[in-house]
Amino acid sequence: MRMIHSDLCAPVEPATLSGERYFLTFVDDYSRFCEVRWIKKKSDVAVEFKKFLKVNDIVKRIRCDNAKEYVSGELQKVARNAGVEIDPCPPYTPQLNGVAERMSRTLFDKARAILYDSRLPKSCWGYAIQAAAFLHNRIPCTSINDHTPYELKYSTKPDLSKIRIFGCGAYVKVADTQKRKLDPKSKKIIFIGYSSMGYRVMDPVTRRVTVSRNVRFDEKKIISDKLAATPNIENQEDTSDLGAENEKEKDIKLEETEREIDDKYPEFRRSQRERNPPVRYPFNEALSATNEELTYDEIKFFPE
After folding, report:
1. Which PROSITE patterns match (predicted)?
2. Are 124 and 212 part of one and the same domain?
3. Any idea what the CATH number is for the domain that residue 25 is in?
4. Which of 181, 205, 228 is the last residue in one of the domains?
5. CB-side exposure of 90: number of CA atoms within 13 Å?
6. Are 107 and 68 in a shared domain?
7. What is the pTM of this model?
8. DSSP character string of the chain
9. Domains: count for the chain
10. Contact yes or no for 185/175 (Cβ under 8 A)
11. Residue 165 Cα to chain centre, angstroms
12. 92 plus 131 within the same structural domain
C-alpha cells in the first residue's frame, strides 16, 4: 500500500442520517482494496487523510484530481508531515485518476441496487456505500488476476460466512440492564452494514444506528422503512364477534337471492315419456345370448 488513489464524490441528496453529503474513497494501487469515509463538507478532507495516514503509515504517494480540497495548503501540510507525496492530475483530466473514478462509479451502482432491493429510504445511502465497499473487497477482481483485494492486503482468504442481505430483518439481544422481568429478550431491527466489531443495525422506529454482535437474522423478510411502525395491539378492538355476525348476514342475503332467482326462472316442463334405447344390432344380441364361442362357419348360417 505505497500508492493510494483517492477521489471525493460530489454532494449526494439527501444527506445521510447523520448529515453527511460527501464520501471519500481510498483505493490501494496494489490490491485494489477500498476504504470509504463520510464527510459533511469538503474542508474535512484533510482531517480524514490525517486519520487514514496515521493507520496506514507505509503510504508514500497519493494520486488524486486537481480539486481544491486536494491541492489546498492544509492537506499539503498533512502530507508533508507524514512524508507523503501528493500527485494531482492536470485540470479537467479525470481519466488520469481512472482507478479512483471507476471505483466511485462501481460503489454507486452497487449502492443503488442495494437500496432498491432493501426498500430503505435514500438517506441510508451512506451505509449502502460502505456495504458495497465491504463486498467489493471480498469479490475476485480481474485487474488483480482474479484475486480478492482482501486476500492481497491481509495475505489470507476472507471469511464469507458473515455476509448478510442488506436491509433484512434481524433481532438483537437486549442487555439485562435495559429490560425488566417480563420484557422481551430481543428487539426487532434492520441490518444495514458491517463493522470491525460486529454488525450495524438500525431501529426502524427511532432510526438509531448501533453496532452489535448478538444478532439473529431473518433474511427472508425485508423490513421497509414505511412499514416500520408496529401497531399497538393493546389498543386494538376485538372484532372477532362482529366478523361472525357479518358472515351470518352474508349467508342470509345469499339464500334470499337464490330464492328470488328460483321464483323468477322456474324449471322448464319436461316430457314424462319413458325412453327405451333402439334395437339396432339384433345379430350381436343373438351372439351374446348364446354365451358360447362359435366359429365363422357356424355363424354364417345364422338368419339375417
Report:
1. INTEGRASE
2. no
3. 3.30.420.10
4. 228
5. 2
6. yes
7. 0.70
8. --EEEEEEPPP-SS--TTS--EEEEEEETTT--EEEEEESSGGGHHHHHHHHHHH-TT--EEEE-S-HHHHSHHHHHHHHHHT-EEEEPPTT-GGGGHHHHHHHHHHHHHHHHHHHHHT--GGGHHHHHHHHHHHHTTS-BGGGTTB-HHHHHHSS---GGG---TTEEEEEEPPGGG--TTS-SEEEEEEEEEETTEEEEE-TTT--EEEES-EEEEEEEE--STT-SPP-GGGS---HHHHHHHHHHHHHHHHHHHHHHHHHSPPPP------------HHHHHHHHH-S---HHHHTTS--
9. 2
10. no
11. 6
12. yes
**Which three cell numbers mark 50?**
490525517
17 within domain boundaries? yes
10-residue stretch averages of pLDDT, the chain, 304 residues long: 88 90 94 94 91 90 90 87 91 90 94 92 93 95 92 92 92 87 89 92 90 89 50 37 49 57 56 70 54 60 54
- Alpha-carbon Rg for the chain in angstroms: 38
Let me know: does 125 contact 12? Beta carbons within 8 Å.
Answer: yes
185-218 core/surface letters (b: 16 or more CB in 10 A; e: else): eebbbbbbbbeeeebbbbebeeeebeebeebeee
CB half-sphere exposure, 46, CA atoms < 13 A: 15
Rounded Cα distance between 253 and 304, Å, is: 66
Domain that holds residue 80: 2-154
Let me know: does 156 contact 108? Beta carbons within 8 Å: no
Distance of CA 58 to the CA centre of its chain: 37
Taking phi over 0 as left and psi of -120 to 50 as alpha, with beta for the rest, 222 belongs to beta
Given a contact cutoff of 8 angstroms between Cβ atoms, the answer to whether 139 and 34 are in contact is no
Strands 198-202 and 186-195: antiparallel
Cell, residue 274: 319413458
CA dihedral 179, 180, 184, 190 (to 10 degrees): -20
